[in-house]
Amino acid sequence: MTIGIDKIAFYTPKYVLDLIELAKVRGDEPEKYTIGIGQDKQSVVPNYEDIVTMGANAASKIIDDTDRQLIDSVILATESGIDNSKSGAIYIQRLLNLSEFTRTIELKQACYAGTYGLMQARDYVAAHPGRRVLVIASDIARYGLATPGEVTQGAGAIAMIISDNPKIASINTDSVYMSAERADFWRPLDRTQALVDGHLSTDIYKEMFLTLWQRYCTKTQQTISDFSGFAFHLPYTKMGKKALDEVLDQATAEQQVNLMEKLKASQQLSRQVGNIYTGSVYLSLLSLLSYSDKLQSGEKIAIFSYGSGAEAELYSITLQENFTEYVPRKSVKQLLEGRQKLSVSEYEAVFNSQLFDSHVNVKSEAVSGVTQFQFLGWQNGERVYA
Ligand code: COA
Asked: Has this prediction a pTM greater than 0.85?
């Protein structure tokens, strides 16, 4: 039985910050941001959006009535959760009007958890043919104003429906994975911004990628020539190049040109959105599927998922017949083009307007007359959504 990604959707908030303008205000060279780190823009979250609204807004683009009947589980991966106890997936289940006879759960392991969710979903469908799982990876990358990580912030959600006979890609049962306790990035319970050693994180990422690549090649008897491209977790787009450089010399000159072209296609969306943590590797995949016109059905793509702390997984997907018809490339481009630009001072005001204090009854700046889900504010310590 073939199992994999049947549908995929992306959502990001409507505000966007130009990073060349940010570089000028911060006293940095713009090329450091756009070339050295590889980021042009980042999505900015208004205080009426969070991982629940973004996740529900992404999923609502793909869920139809057949899915509502067949979805048994909602798996939400995030490291920007809104509650220490209650799963954000329960709010999403209600907002999407899914059956009460549905499992809902939230998973956490930095940027890696979406991949764990996907693997759980695949195994569930294998055991329950005909049934479906909704996997959502939703996050807000928040490092703080004028910090080194600021240029790599971002926000958004990827939603995927996992089923048998998938329309986009099968998930192959060839995973290799590893976990090793490291202190490159974490966020204690009393903090709203992450603590990060970005340079250490880059080193561990590269080390784990190389270790898993060698393990994968040995286990599956495949080489780099078996893949038409890679989708890497992209905390910033230069990270993809750093990873690919680790193995590129294993390819022929012609393959190297092809892999570099595909890398560029996979970086397009992250360049304009920023890091979306758990969803980042799947934003890279969506970008590759949206911006490369050279991919063919039957071809394999290697996926490398990394989460600080640290855990990583490498596996492959196989593109299905007519997959291009089901990749929402037009709507994704429209979503990004339709964003509203903020000046640096407007971005700073929005950044500081987040409603973290649950002790005060307060309304967010939710707007009326929109179809998207919104966080309306705090009421008696509860988050209110509509
Ligand atoms: N033109 C072109 N490139 C330039 C430049 C210029 N004017 N100025 C600097 N650069 C390059 C540097 O050479 C460097 O390239 P390299 O990484 O290939 O060596 C790059 O820009 C970044 O410069 P650096 O001095 O290392 O930047 P930084 O100390 O501000 O840190 C990050 C950059 C990405 C590490 C930082 O933004 C960060 O920690 N982000 C969080 C990322 C993260 O770890 N997320 C979680 C892990 S998954």
From this structure: yes
